[in-house]
Amino acid sequence: MMNENKPGSVLILGDSTSMSIGLERQTHVFINAGKNIWPSETTIVNSSLPGMTAADSAAFYFRHKKNELQNLRAVLIYLGNCDTTSTEVRKGRYSRFNQIKDELREFFNKMPAKTSIKNRLLHFEWNNTFNPKIESPEYPEDFEFNLDRIIRDCRSRSIPVIIVRPKANQFFPSGIGKGNFSFYRYLGIQDKIANQISIPDPRFKEALMCHESGNFHEAAVLYKEILIKPHAAAMSQEYSLLVSNNYAVAKAESWNYEEAVYLLQLLLKEAGVRKEIILFNLSQIKKLQGNLKEAERLMEESFESDTSLYRVRFPYIQAVDSLIKKYPFVKSVDMYELIADEFYLDHCHPLPEGQRILADAIAEKFAEVGVSGSTKAGIKNILYNPEFANGNKSFFHDYFKTFAPFSEAEISSQLSAFRNAYDASNNDSVIPEINTATREMKTAFEYFLRHPVFTSFEDILRFPPKYPSDIGRFPEYFIIRHLIPYVALYESMKGTDAEINFEHSILRSSTDLLSILPEETRSLVDKAPPAIDIIYEEKRIALILDKVNRLLLKHLSLGNQVYNRTKSTIFWYVRETLRFGSHSRYSMRYDRMLLEYLAEGLVVSKIINCHLNNRYTDEINKLVNALNQTVSIHDDYCSRFKLSENSSTLLENYDKALEGIHYQLINKKK
Predict the structure, then answer these.
(1) Which residue intervals of 108-228 are DSSP H helices?
(2) CA-angle at 504, arms to 31 and 554, nearest 5°
(3) Percent of the residues in the chain that have a pLDDT greater than 70, as a whole number
(4) DSSP state letter for 518
(5) CB 358, CB 335: distance < 8 Å
(6) What residue ranges of the chain are covered by domains with CATH 3.40.50.1110?
(7) Distances (CA, A) of 643 to 177, 284, 292, 567
(8) For residue 3, pLDDT beyond 90
(9) What is residue 424's predicted lDDT score, i.e. its pLDDT?
(10) Cα angle at 286 between 282 and 288, to 5 degrees?
(11) Around Cβ 477, how many Cβ atoms within 10 Å?
(12) Which of 33, 64, 146, 507 has the least CB density, counted as fewest CB within 10 Å?
């Protein structure tokens, strides 16, 4: 029983759907924490992160019940999406016996190492060794067992439990989370990746180029040739199945629906076929034929067959229903009643509008169980890793190697070697090659050079990384640390002639940027304004502005990226979550990260410009205006786009609007 005289906590057991990180603070956790509905000094303890299953949450609950969770007011459970996803890291039931084994391993410091994954997810590179047989989702009965164990313990401690009856986006393209999905054509998904892919058979790339350009007949001819004359290199069984799928889609896009349906139905009978993708394409054909009832049935079957995406399926919802019936004291929030399909943009995370609806419903349940008051709540994130139930007790930043395994002295030594090599070559166009270079350092350098404030390797040497977090798994942390003093100085100019009119929150505040950094690295940010070397910066500002201009032109020349971004969600979701938050957002449909980088580059240019008698003011303002217009166009069209509808006219107009900005930039000096 909770001691009412002590500050209490509310526990959230969830996955990425309940994360409370990122700038935009739009998930239900942030929304409710900011309401004046909590007892005094309430802390929301949040364990949620991508990959967390019911087993991980049970391990978290029982590990912390005697310390952080000693004075619990209530528990909120919002799980299921990660249990339904195939993985090589199976967890099963977190029983009392497994808990004791877990505790003994930790006592004797025998924590298991991070699992080495065999089925690597490659970015647009054919994986000839992908083996779906070594992966499987958690069993629904194990999912139910793990939740049941938590609920039973809460009941014994008189702790109220609220459980969310979860929902995912049934209409999101199936199969795009595993293996070679990017090579499959999805009817109605007009992504263009042929110029990015790497595959042993060059004929496939040629066929895909034809397909993407709308030459469906020629694409079908090329796909057929691949099927008749196998490639000389040994290709996995999946390759012929993939090519057959693409051939059928090309036929469907040529209005040969009967042949396409026949071929896809034959494919469903083949061993090892990506059934969820085939069913998705069959559903799309039935929709085009006007058979909406059959299209809906096939889409539901595709959804229920999909173990690649984080989308909770019916057997797991049945498990939640069984627990609600078994334990009358448990309060439930049914997302099927609350959140309409229109409030989903990605696979399982509601848009901000849906998050607010969900937050309100959860707040009502907290009030019903007696957790109410008139103050805001604090949030304490305790983040581990997706192997927590299997005994890996590494915290998030240790597990994902946020901090490189080098001391500051070792980093400095590596930099000295690079500096010597650079001085010897005097070639600013490439990163120097040195034998002692570590993978972490080279990868970090490559990432830094994506940002416009780093125009060359010389810039990196002038503004070098210093700390392990600068060159760890997320090298953007170094970029943010470097930028904050510039942004803070710019903010002090507000209300003066030096202010730039950024729109659509494209420039984040220094406080926001600081909040992105791991808490233990925030003290590493320089408090003093950035030092300005006039001679060096006079050369650098022109290079920054040129790079901003080039990156923006390239971005605009690509046209809309709605389908590409949709299909590649699995590649960028987690990394962008660290900056934006885990909710769905319309800016997912374009490269918002790049455009925020460009805004940051322009702010640094503005700071430098103030020391150069404002010689570059006109050029900066023109680029700011072009950037504002670009973001405005993206936000407008992306908010109106619907994946389930024919949006060809909308996307044509979208591309024309981007072309207009591209034309303005090219001719800005005329």
Answers:
(1) 140-156, 202-212, 216-228
(2) 125
(3) 98
(4) -
(5) yes
(6) 9-113+140-172+310-399
(7) 18, 12, 16, 11
(8) no
(9) 87
(10) 115
(11) 24
(12) 64
Judge contact between 46 and 14, C-beta under 8 A. Answer: yes
Query: Where are the alpha helices (H) located in 558-647, listed in sequence order?
Result: 562-567, 569-580, 592-610, 617-640
Q: Could you tell me where the DSSP H helices lie in 497-591?
A: 510-516, 534-557, 562-567, 569-580
> 9-113+140-172+310-399 maps to which CATH number?
3.40.50.1110
Count of C-beta atoms within a 10 Å radius of residue 119: 18
> For residue 232, what pLDDT is reported?
79
- Radius of gyration (C-alpha) of the chain in whole angstroms: 26
Task: Give the whole-angstrom CA distance, residue 247 versus residue 244.
Answer: 5
CA distance 536 to 348: 48
pLDDT at 1: 47
**What stretch(es) of the chain map to CATH 1.25.40?**
181-305
Report how far residue 45's alpha carbon sits from residue 60's, in angstroms, rounded to the nearest whole number. 11
Say which DSSP state 341 is in: G
8 Å CB contact between 445 and 457: yes
Where do runs of H (alpha helix) occur along 229-274? 237-253, 257-267
CA distance 459 to 453: 8
Give, in degrees to the nearest 5, the angle at Cα 578 between 577 and 584.
20
Assess contact for 543 and 456: CB atoms under 8 A. Answer: yes
How many residues belong to the chain? 670
d(CA 596, CA 445): 19
Taking a C-beta distance cutoff of 8 angstroms, is the pair 382, 442 a contact?
no
Token pair of 365, please?
Answer: 């349940």
280-315, pLDDT tens digit by residue? Answer: 999 999 999 999 999 999 999 999 999 999 999 999
Residue 371, Cβ density class (10 Å: 0-12 exposed, 13-18 middle, ≥19 buried): buried
Angle at 91 between CA 571 and CA 278, to 5 degrees: 45
Both tokens assigned to 228: 């008749």
Bridge partners (DSSP) of residue 77 are 13, 163
- Look up the pTM and report it: 0.94
Percentage of the chain lying above the pLDDT 90 cut: 91
Dist. CA 143–CA 318, nearest whole Å: 11
Give 527-534's long-range contacts (Cβ < 8 A, gap of 24+). Answer: 527/485, 528/485, 529/485, 529/488, 529/489, 530/485, 530/486, 530/489, 530/607, 532/607, 532/608, 532/611, 534/611, 534/612
Q: Let me know: does 22 contact 577? Beta carbons within 8 Å.
A: yes
Topology of domain 181-305, CATH: 1.25.40
pLDDT digits (tens, 9 = 90+) for 122-142: 999 999 999 999 999 999 999
pLDDT, tens only, 79-127: 999 999 999 999 999 999 999 999 999 889 888 889 999 999 999 999 9
